Task: inverse folding
């Protein structure tokens, strides 16, 4: 059974930092592209960042320069370092795994809440 378990969410003041982690199990972590999505209340879910098995990254324009995605293949874990957080970053953040042959994520975590106060 494939599992993606996020952790690290919480409440932080504007300008602060958080680091999200996502541990995977039940699937070969190294062959997938990992990603973070988020969904704010009343808004559509949006892509935040992705990282391939080779370490190539893509970021949403809204987080470029503030967020960093990384992965530790030895620990089957992907991270999202979030700096200079703003109230607009408030959302539920989801970890995803996409197989190389898939056009979209195959697996999703349960989500972790990030709340940024002004």
Result:
């Amino acid at each position: 059974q494939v599992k993606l378990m996020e952790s690290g969410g919480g409440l932080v003041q504007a300008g602060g930092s958080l680091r999200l982690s996502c541990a995977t199990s039940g699937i070969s972590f190294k062959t997938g592209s990992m990603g973070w999505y988020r969904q704010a209340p009343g808004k559509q879910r949006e892509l935040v960042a992705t990282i391939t098995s080779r370490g190539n990254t893509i970021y949403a324009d809204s987080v470029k320069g503030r967020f960093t995605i990384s992965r530790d293949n030895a620990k089957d874990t992907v991270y999202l370092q979030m700096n200079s957080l703003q109230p607009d970053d408030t959302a539920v953040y989801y970890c995803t795994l996409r197989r190389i042959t898939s056009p979209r994520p195959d697996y999703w975590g349960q989500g972790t809440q990030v709340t940024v106060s002004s």
Observations:
- The first strand starts at residue 3 and ends at 7.
- The CA atoms of residues 74 and 117 lie 35 Å apart.
- The chain has a mean pLDDT of 94.
- The chain is about 0% helix and 55% strand.
